[in-house]
Amino acid sequence: MDGSAxxxxxxxxxxxxxxxxxxxxxxxxxxxxxxxxxxxxxxRINPGLRLVSLCTCASEAHDLILEHQPxxxxxxxxxxxxxxxxxxAEIKRQHATKRVMLIQRSPHIGGSREAWTAGCEVIVxxxxxxxxxLFDAYRTLFTDGAFCDPDLQRxxxxxxxxxxxxxxxxxxxxxxxxxxxxVYGLTNGQISERLxxxxxxxxxxxxxxMQKLNVSNRAHLATRALRTGLCSWGLADNGPPRxxxxxx
Length: 248
Prior knowledge:
By secondary structure, this protein is α/β, with parallel strands linked by helices. It folds into 2 domains: 4-158, Rossmann fold (3-Layer(aba) Sandwich), CATH 3.40.50.2300; 173-245, Orthogonal Bundle (Arc Repressor Mutant, subunit A). The protein is 45% helix and 16% strand.
């Protein structure tokens, strides 16, 4: 595969990402060390990101988290030893404030089910990281948004791993619009600009959404929107992935 045509778009995406990443301490758990070396190179154009730890085995990860205190983690399902999907779920349950991204090799829900239920903010399929989808996954990791591969999300919602037992109060049209932007990772100020409303109005909608979905912060609001099927990621015909409300 000739990826030359993607070089410029990748360069632009990296510069866009640099404006979003502020004071982030990143830990990578992968089957080999090459992703970490690429991040070290990326640090030169983004002083807001620092790679604080890198390992290849699940057994090493927990101690390294306590030692280096990362704020964000990128975990690949395929490790030198251990199960990356299970590790992602364990870390999220034990360190709820840390933002976790799982790069899942298998398109089947078995490997992603536990990470999804534990509340990992980003789950992306390794084989479907083209077309800007990987950038949006990274983008939501470093904001308060959430991302799940849409095909994988549909499988997870159809399974019984997270049955919908709690009735959610109906959302207004404007609340649906705001919720989409929250999942995308926008701030109140960015939402106000996008929707043509005041920042105070955007803030009020966010508060109302948190009450209706029974969560305490916007990060949980974003993940709950995906896990309940209220929102889903989709791929535009000729553009990067954008948020769209899922049909109920």
